[in-house]
Amino acid sequence: MPSLGPAPADPKPLIFLFVIDSLRPDYLRPYNAAVGFPPQIDAFAADSLLFRNAFSRYGGTGLSVSSIWMGAAGPHKQYVQPFGR
Asked: How far apart are CA 78 and CA 26, in angstroms?
């Protein structure tokens, strides 16, 4: 695996973060060797950094994705309603 040090100044690397809702790791070959589908994800993972112990503060995707970007707990309500009059 290549070093995770600073990137060279030019050209800057392209970094993509894919967040896929409801895709269980036991259905993906990078996490479960007994599975053979989908082969494109296995090829992509072979050339990627794979996180095996990633956790968020929430169980639902709507709140957990925003907590990943914030690096902390955010609002505990997904659909915030305006104050009453």
From this structure: 27
Give the 3-state secondary structure of the chain: CCCCCCCCCCCCCCCCCCCCCCCCHHHCCCCCCCCCCCHHHHHHHHCCCCCCCCCCCCCCHHHHHHHHHHCCCCCCCCCCCCCCC
- Per cent of the chain over pLDDT 70 is 89
Handedness of CA 13, 49, 23, 81 (dihedral sign): negative
Verdict on whether the full-model pTM lies above 0.70: no
**Prior bond to 13 cis, omega within 30?**
no
N- to C-terminal Cα separation, the chain: 58
Query: What whole-number distance in Å separates Cα of residue 22 and Cα of residue 5?
Result: 32
